[in-house]
Structure formats: structure tokens, C-alpha cells
Write a structure and sequence with these properties.
alpha+beta, Rossmann fold, 2 domains, six-stranded antiparallel sheet, 6 helices, 18% helix
């Protein structure tokens, strides 16, 4: 079922020239179509863009029914965490380097936005993780992650152990651990040897970072799993926990990092010609000419 969008939010580093120019084009285009356009108060959108009103940051998600992010994947990740649970879908305009999530190119953005506004789009529901640091039975801090939750050493090697649904999995030594969604499987987890998981697969993956043992390999779990991580007494420096690169806090000995699927999800909207596999080929340079100069066929008979 398609939705009608009349209040459009813009998200990005609007003061940066690479973002400001497409933001001006989009805001003018939407205003000419009779739509209301909003930015966050902290972005200074009203001063930077004509015809754009501001909403308080804590009420931004409740005041819009579609969010257009302009920037890289990090920009979309930040916006997704802020509007989680608000039933606001996202469209990503790519002004970054890679663009796994922000898949609309600037040269096609107005055309893509118009098509989406008419209800002609593909909608993808993406899994969110919720990470909590628990101390003495109390939640000290929590945060959502669309890509991954990362436990990473500060100085010396980490010693920690993992449980899944209350069952002991293993003791680990190394630089840390990534707990990734399918969305994040093409990010840090991939760089550490994790598998690529199709976005619609109902799973999460645990990927060790520089494990001290060659047998400590990535582990794919059901998305309903509850993952618990505790540092062992051999850890001299508390590791840092981050969600999509944003700091959550330190995990001291005795604390528990508890990670589970959030009740909220994030919906990404794409043009109808969107193909996940085409995106993988483009971003990961699959099918480039081989040594003989021949390019592998894109289809098989």
C-alpha cells in the first residue's frame, strides 16, 4: 500500500556546499509542488534554505511523513536512529563516497523524488538493533543501530565472552566484536571477513575483530536472538561500545552489553528500478574485466 506524503523533512549537513546545492534544488522543487518542507532547528535550515520551516529536533520525526537525507550513508544512519518508531520512511540522496543506503544519485534526484511522491516506489523494511549497557541490573545507556553495534578495544587486547539467549557461546580474545544487521553486513563487518547478507534475510551476524584464534569465525544468528557480551577479568582497559559509529559508552568488568532486535524498524524507499544486486556489483566492483580483457556476462543462459 502506498502512502501520501505532504510534509517532507530534509536532513543533512546543510552548511556544506556539496549538500547545500542539492538541498536548495530539492526544497524549491517541493515548495513549487505545494508541499511543506521542514528541517531541524539544529541544522539552521530556515536560514540556509528558502521556504523551509524548522521543527525542534525532539519533535522532528513527529512533524513529517517522509524524510529525504542528503549526504553519505553515515548521514542516513544518523537520521534513521533519530526517527526510529515514528513511521517515517527515508529516501537517500548520495553525496558521500560509497552509497549503499543513499542510492539515489544527484542527477536523478528530482525525477526519483517525483516518482516516489506519486506512490511509485519500492519499500524495504530494515531491521534495527537496540544495544543496552546494563550495570547492577539497571540500564545505564541504550541506543539503536541500523548497521552495527561494535565492541572495540581502547588499548590492549580484549578478553570477553558471549552468550546467545542465555547459553554460553565462547570466550574470545582480540580487538573486539561486531554485531551486524543485514544492512550493516556490507560495512565494517564485511571488512572484518563477515558474510554479505541480503537485506530481507531475518538474521544478525557476530563478527570478531582481529581474533587471537583463527577458529574464532563469524556466526550468523536468528534476528530474534538476544546477545550478551561481558568483559573478562583479563581486560585491563574498558572497551568502547558504539552504534553506527556513535559512542554508547564503556563496558567495564561486571557490565553486560545486551543486544537484541528493536521493536521499531526503518523503512527505506527506492525508485522502482532499484536492484540490490546491481548495487553490490557497482559498489564492490564485481564483474570488472579479467586479465584477458573480457568482461563477464551480466546474465547466464
Amino acid at each position: 500500500m502506498t502512502r501520501e506524503f505532504s510534509k517532507i523533512g530534509l536532513w543533512g549537513r546543510l552548511a556544506e556546499p556539496a549538500v547545500a546545492d542539492p538541498a536548495r534544488q530539492i526544497s524549491a522543487h517541493l515548495a513549487a509542488a505545494g508541499l511543506e518542507v521542514f528541517g531541524t532547528a539544529s541544522s539552521g535550515a530556515a536560514a540556509l534554505l528558502d521556504g523551509v520551516a524548522e521543527l525542534p529536533d525532539d519533535r522532528f520525526g513527529a512533524g513529517i511523513d517522509l524524510l529525504i537525507t542528503i549526504g553519505g550513508d553515515g548521514t542516513l544512519l544518523r537520521s534513521a536512529r533519530r526517527i526510529a518508531g515514528k513511521n517515517v520512511p527515508l529516501v537517500g540522496i548520495n553525496r558521500g563516497r560509497l552509497g549503499f543506503l543513499t542510492d539515489v544519485t544527484p542527477d536523478r534526484m528530482l525525477e526519483a523524488i517525483d516518482t516516489i511522491l506519486t506512490g511509485d516506489y519500492l519499500a524495504e523494511e530494515r531491521l534495527l538493533l537496540e544495544a543496552r549497557i546494563v550495570r547492577d541490573g539497571q540500564v545505564r545507556s541504550s541506543m539503536y543501530a541500523l548497521n552495527d553495534v561494535v565492541l572495540q578495544r581502547s588499548e590492549h587486547m580484549l578478553y570477553f565472552h558471549t552468550k546467545v539467549d542465555g547459553s554460553f557461546v565462547s570466550a574470545h580474545a582480540g580487538d573486539g566484536l561486531i554485531v551486524s544487521t543485514p544492512t550493516g553486513s556490507t560495512a565494517y563487518a564485511l571488512a572484518c571477513g563477515g558474510p554479505i547478507i541480503q537485506p530481507g534475510v531475518d538474521a544478525v551476524v557476530l563478527v570478531p575483530i582481529c581474533p587471537h584464534s583463527l577458529s574464532d569465525r563469524p556466526l550468523v544468528l536468528e534476528s530474534s536472538s538476544v546477545i550478551e557480551v561481558r568483559t573478562d577479568s583479563g581486560t585491563t582497559d574498558p572497551p568502547n561500545i558504539s552504534c553506527d559509529g556513535e559512542p554508547l559508552g564503556e563496558l567495564v568488568v561486571g557490565d553486560t552489553l545486551r543486544i537484541a532486535a528493536a521493536t521499531e524498524t526503518v523503512t527505506l524507499l527506492h525508485p522502482t528500478n532499484y536492484s540490490y544486486y546491481e548495487l553490490l556489483r557497482s559498489k564492490l566492483h564485481w564483474g570488472l574485466p579479467n586479465r584477458s580483457g573480457q568482461t563477464p556476462s551480466t546474465e547466464r543462459a
